[in-house]
Amino acid sequence: MHQEFLMGNQAIALGALAAGVRLVAGYPGTPSTEVLETVAKNRQENTYVEWSVNEKSAMEVGAGAAYTGARTMVTMKQVGLNVAADPLMSLEYIGVKGGMVILVADDPGPISSQTEQDTRHFARFSKLPCFDPSTVQEAYDMVQEAFEYSEKYGTPVFFRSTTRVSHGYASIQVKEVEEYKNVEPEGFVKDTKRWVIFPKLSYQAHINIEARNEELAKVFSQYKRNLLLPAGDDCKELKKGIATGGFNYTYVTEAMANLGQLRELKVSTPHPFPEQLAVEFLTGLEEVLCIEELDPVIERELIYIAGKYHLPVKILGKLSHHVKNSGENTRDSVLADIAAFMGRQLPEQGENGQAVPAPELPVRPPVLCAGCPHRASFYAVKKAMQGRKTIFCGDIGCYTMGNAMPLDMVDTCLCMGAGLGIAQGVGHIEPDTSCFAFVGDSTFFAAAIPGVVNAVYNQAEMTLVVLDNSTTAMTGHQPHPGTGHTMMGEVVAKVNIEAVLQGIGVTAVETVNPLDLDKSIEVVRKMAGMPGVKAIIFKYPCIAITKPEGKMAVDIDKCVGCRKCIREIGCPGLIIRDGQVAIDESLCTGCGLCSQICPFEAIGGC
Questions:
Q1: Which residues span the domain enclosing 91?
Q2: Is 112 part of any domain?
Q3: Are the CB atoms for 288 and 264 separated by under 8 Å?
């Protein structure tokens, strides 16, 4: 063993490698992305890793490997689990031979997601065991135990992290490479009664699953990471208790150091719930406060158990509004909630019990990078469609920020690939509306192709705009089928987006450089005027991976101060300095979009 300073996601990855993982597949999504990247960087020769085209594909690849007896991991964020749900809900009935861990990173806040959905619900819905680590060290250790439980019970298991575990850092103890397990897979053994799902098999499997989960509820009551504190007779003297789990356990621990002692229940396996341990915790208590993220999962379980065993204890938490029922908990909010529950004054409160307000953090709204080709693409479409009734359906990615003023070019955003369907739906009801759907190159492969097929087949009237910047930019520039290389470092043939579109029946497809503004506007006008489904591919590399040479500069003798450049594109590289429009040299990439907008030719290269 040795010590390393690691991010939580790095610890999970190294824990999986220590457990002998042989295949890792996933789709990038904050806050989960670094798990697969760390595996790729540190993998053994016999470990295969891939960025799959989407989470559904990743789940199926992982299942196939687990059928052979190999230990596998599948990674995604919480909304990615929705995409993977189709194979997952059947896989729970089929089961696995090798240990299979499904790493899902939840995003309380949400900090970088569409939703605050809680994977613990999905665990109960899918009847799968769920592990919920509270620290970076525990994440490292627990993922290894998760593989053991998965293999022992022949089932996939969830490993649910949250942002503060995934992206928190700590100095932890990790194994030497020589200590890693080497679980040699038996190989796939043909058995249609096991691997081919059909109603009779599912019926019997359901019976077995329910029996297994009853057993696991008892086993998890003895699991060393489910804790009842303090232990023994000291516990019986206390009449109030705190129930918590995941990263919130660290908040509770810190709060109790300031407020005094209560009986505590730490739940590391929210499903199957450690029922007998919970009964021991609740017995003799009068009130319990539940501190958890995101939903009242522990709270509802304790209410049920208190009723089942006729325990006269009041369960408080999100349902009773003693803890906020949305957003991310913080050290301060947990401290305040527990202090109120105990009837104590907060240590940091000032005179008359008034809390000392913390200074407000500066507001930094998200914005497209200076020189981002998406800004030019949006602006070209906006100028071309000016004066016409148009809807701009957006998607998930950097380009979602095209909704910000002054561009104001994202009218809808639901989930990956949904813009195509929404554009079609609006078009069928409002045929006088010009319907545009924007999608990125990575998302095109992940989720948009079926929408294009649907549009062609059902004769929709719409314009697809593919914003191709040759990477998966929002999540850290991961490769995808259009980049020509894989996560294993292999050089492969690029999947050509234009050829794919033509192959599924889109006959009108044009590719243009968005930084050629006049040409881009011309192409948009032409394509928008054509009937049926047509596609524009705005192709220019992300400025974060391809740095242009040169900067732009403002000729103060020509500039009249109209500020059209600032008002129309909102580039952060355009600033006001001493009352005069200027270029921030530290941000400018020399893309030249502003120079094409200036009516007085006051901006040029330098």
A1: 2-221
A2: yes
A3: no
Cis peptide before 406 (omega within 30 of 0): yes
C-alpha pair distances (Å), 46 with each of 27, 43, 96, 150: 21, 8, 20, 21
Provide the CATH number for the domain around residue 587.
3.30.70.20
> Among 500, 515, 539, which residue terminates a domain?
539
Let me know how long the chain is: 606
Asked if 92 and 127 touch (Cβ cutoff 8 Å), the reply is yes
Q: Are residues 440 and 335 in the same domain?
A: no
Residue with tokens 């693409």: 377
At residue 200's C-alpha, the angle toward residues 196 and 206, to 5°, is: 90
478: which DSSP letter?
B
pLDDT along the chain (606 residues), means of 10: 96 97 95 95 93 94 95 95 94 95 93 88 96 97 98 97 96 95 92 88 92 97 94 73 96 90 95 97 96 95 97 96 93 93 74 62 82 94 95 89 89 90 93 94 92 95 94 84 85 92 96 96 96 96 82 92 93 92 91 93 86
Do both 12 and 47 map to the same domain?
yes
Q: Are residues 50 and 94 in the same domain?
A: yes
- Tell me: do 11 and 115 sit in the same domain: yes
Residue 431's CB: how many other CB atoms inside 10 A? 9
Same domain flag for 197 and 146: yes
Cα angle 42, 48, 51; round to 5:
90
187, with CB counted inside 10 A (0-12, 13-18, 19+), is: exposed
First to last CA, the chain: 55
Contact 514, 520 (CB under 8 A): yes
Listed residues 299, 329, 346: the one ending a domain: 346
- Does 367 map to a domain? no
| Cα 104-187-155 angle, rounded to 5 deg | 35
Both tokens of 494, joined, read 């690029």
- Rg of the chain in Å (alpha carbons): 27
Closest alpha carbon to 12 in 120, 140, 119: 140
* Domains held by the chain: number: 4
> CA 23 to CA 35: how far, in whole Å?
13
- Spatial CA neighbour of 537 closest among 501, 494, 484: 501
- Global pTM? 0.89
